[in-house]
Amino acid sequence: MKAKFRSLSGGLRRLLGRLRLPTPRPKRAAGLGLALGGGFARGLAHIGVLKVLEENNIPVRCLAGTSIGSIIAGAYASGVSLEEMTARGRKIRWRDFGQWTFSRMGFASNQRLEVLVKNFFQATRFEDLKLPLAILASDLVRARAVVFTSGELTLAVRASCAYPGLFLPVNHNGQVLVDGMLVSGVPTRAVADLGATVVVAVVLNNLMPPAMPKSVVEVLGRSFSIAQQTAEPLWRRHADIVIEPDVGQYSWDDFACADELIAAGERAMRAALPKLQRLLKAPADKLIAAR
Question: How far is CA 291 from each of CA 192, 249, 283, 285, rounded to the nearest angstrom?
């Protein structure tokens, strides 16, 4: 009996070996991916972009964020409602995420962001999020991008928001991590890698009208903005649509202008809606190939 069973099993294996079954291709998360850029208080405009998408029943399939974009993207991916985000945005102030300190590596610590993430997000690990998320930071020593897609959100957000010169760098696994904006103002490549078939980039105008800088923060901010303008083609090539809310008149710490900043995001997204709706109807393969 055993001999017959072994013979039958062997024959079955040989038969299956001759069959050339098609290898399934990995599926992409077809749909909209949002790449949210940095800009301190101006990042509240991201909430307005998300509001317009929800009002028009356009689901977001995945997100990537740099700097404050990582906070908005992380909160949304964890399940925080836009109503909650708006309410928190109206109340947030410097003391909620920054604390002045004395160090050769920076003027302030952003360790308070850990408390903000733990108290505000609906999840504190990437693995527990409702939507795929990537958070971008910069490795200051190796001069390269570091993309977080797993592990603790608190670490990723702190690193992505560690504006060089202002906040202390975040040390992790031998890396010296600072703001993701240093390597990519908008993390379009990261959200494309998550599988988005339509990539929408939200870039915040960080360069204010010509004026003499009045503080070291303004000197740093204006310097980075000028540098990023020359690097824009690198992230724009991965974007299908670029949303540019009109927020250039607002300062880096204008959190008190939350309603105006959110409204600017809404206006910019509404203006781009017809193009977005056309792209969402286009064949995904053609969109991906065109990037």
Answer: 10, 32, 13, 10
Residue of 67, 70, 78, 160 with catalytic role: 67
Q: Which residue has the tokens 């206006």?
A: 267
Whether 139 is catalytic is no
Give the model's pLDDT for residue 101.
Answer: 83
Helix axes 112-120, 153-160, angle to 10 degrees: 130
pLDDT tens per residue, range 139-166:
988 889 999 999 999 999 999 999 888 8
Look at residue 291 and give its three-state secondary structure: coil
215 labelled catalytic = no
Catalytic residue (choose from 78, 139, 160, 179): 179
Q: Is the pLDDT confidence value at 4 over 50?
A: no
Q: How far is C-alpha 259 from the chain's CA centre?
A: 22
Cα atoms found within 13 Å of the Cα of residue 138, Cβ hemisphere only: 20
Contact status, residue 150 vs residue 97, Cβ threshold 8 Å: no
Interval 100-113: pLDDT, tens: 887 777 778 788 89
Half-sphere exposure of 29 (CA within 13 A, CB side): 18
Measured distance CA(41)–CA(265) in Å, rounded: 12
Is there a contact between 43 and 67 (Cβ–Cβ < 8 Å)? yes
The tokens for 231 are 């690097």
Mean residue pLDDT of the chain comes to 84
